[in-house]
Amino acid sequence: MLNADPLSTRPTLLQPSLLARTLDGLRQQATSEAQVWDLLTRNYVVDLDAVASLLPARQPEPVWLASRD
Fold it and tell me: Whole-angstrom Cα distance, residue 44 to residue 38?
């Protein structure tokens, strides 16, 4: 997370619809989810919980039990 720079102003995204539209635009520019987060936090002030609720959750890989013979 970036340190707050009082001399640099960034737009604030508070409405979920604007946040979702911005995320869609950044996903097209970015090559990974980490880069989406980086671009978003460098260019905007956002509620990170709201962003996390809009991004798809990562599902863990299932661990299969060994079969019995």
Answer: 10
pLDDT per residue rounded down to tens, the chain (69 residues):
556 666 778 888 888 889 989 989 998 998 888 898 889 888 898 888 888 888 777 777 777 777 776
Separation of alpha carbons 47 and 43, rounded Å? 13
Q: Positive or negative, the Cα torsion across 6, 11, 17, 23?
A: negative
Distance CA 1, CA 37 (A): 9
Q: Cα(35)–Cα(69) distance, rounded to whole angstroms?
A: 46
d(CA 4, CA 16): 23
What radius of gyration, in Å, describes the C-alpha atoms of the chain?
A: 17
**pTM of the complete model:** 0.64
